Amino acid sequence: MLSEKPLEQKDRKPRRDAGIPRMQDRDIQALRWIGEQGAASVDHLRDLLGRMSEWETDEPGRLSVTRVRHIIEDRWEPAQMVSVENILGKKWVWLTRRAMNRVALPFSHNRPADITINHLDSINRVRLYQEKLYWSKKLPGSWESTRMIERSRKEWAALKKDDPMVYVPRHYATWHMPDGIWTYRNKDHTEDHVVFIEVEVSSKGLERTQRIFLDLARHGTTWYYVDLSPKKKHLFATLMQALESLDKRHGHRSRFYFYDLNNPNKLVYHSED
């Protein structure tokens, strides 16, 4: 009787991604958020990743700086998902081409410009605030960044070109590019509301601001988040001048709500006219 010999096992080739961290659902969600916005600072990531954490955090809803650093350095960078750099005193993260492909976004993977970084910082804070405000109450709310708005506009323009009878949603019909579009539904409501989001940290000048106000007023409601720090008092003054230039007869003034950027739940001004 012949003795049975064990089958010889073929040597397995190592995976091409051996040693590279695999992206989990939380990673993908966070990376897509960064890609939509263009970039995010470590401080933003503390909130973003904190609300996704399965474990209790020392500071409710926020990861520690150390934990965020580990995620970046031990997961995202080895997987070639992000570029990291200190910009104007803060550590910022943005996606690589590989990451853009991984999260199915068609955007550039360029370093954010120094001149726009403070504005982006404030826009990100407003988005995080809105998402936390609504999602913590189990209310639906979705943010559309300037990158996503631009893509939607192009898609609607292509549809309109093929069929001139196509109705383009009015929030995609402005010439001005808002800092975001927030779509939400309040408790016990059955319909969604859509508002433009504007984050004002530097003056655009009165004439340009007046044109922006008229454009926005013709197409919907706008929530303005304004830097009201003592050094920026002129911002709010310019906004009020632009508001006064709108025609009362069309109810345009009542379509603007002004909030304190540093205390975003504080309504500073709203006209009933």
Number of structurally distinct domains? 2
Q: Bin the strand percentage.
A: 15-25%
> Which sequence of strands runs across the widest sheet?
4-5-6-7-8-9
What coarse outline follows from CA principal-axis ratios?
globular
Low-confidence stretches: none
Instruction: Determine the N-to-C terminus distance.
Output: 101 Å
Q: From the alpha carbons, calculate the radius of gyration and give it in angstroms.
A: 23 Å
The SSE string, one letter per element, is HEHHEEHHEHEEHEHEE
Report the mean per-residue pLDDT as an integer. 92
Helix percentage range? 25-40%
- What is the β-strand count? 9
Largest sheet: 6 strands, mixed
Structural category: alpha+beta
Number of helices: 8
Task: Describe the model.
The structure is a single chain. The chain is α+β, with helices and mostly antiparallel strands and 273 residues long. It folds into 2 domains: 21-112, Winged helix-like DNA-binding domain superfamily/Winged helix DNA-binding domain (Arc Repressor Mutant, subunit A, Orthogonal Bundle); 113-273, no CATH class. The chain has helices at residues 25-37, 42-50, 65-76, 97-102, 114-135, 146-162, 206-219, 233-244; strands spanning 40-41, 82-87, 90-95, 141-145, 180-184, 193-200, 221-226, 256-260, 263-270. Strands 4-5-6-7-8-9 form a 6-stranded mixed sheet, with helices on both faces. The protein has a 3-stranded antiparallel sheet with strand order 1-3-2. Helix 7 (206-219) links the parallel strand 6 (193-200) and strand 7 (221-226). Helix 7 packs across helix 8. It is globular and about 60 Å long. The relative contact order is 0.09.
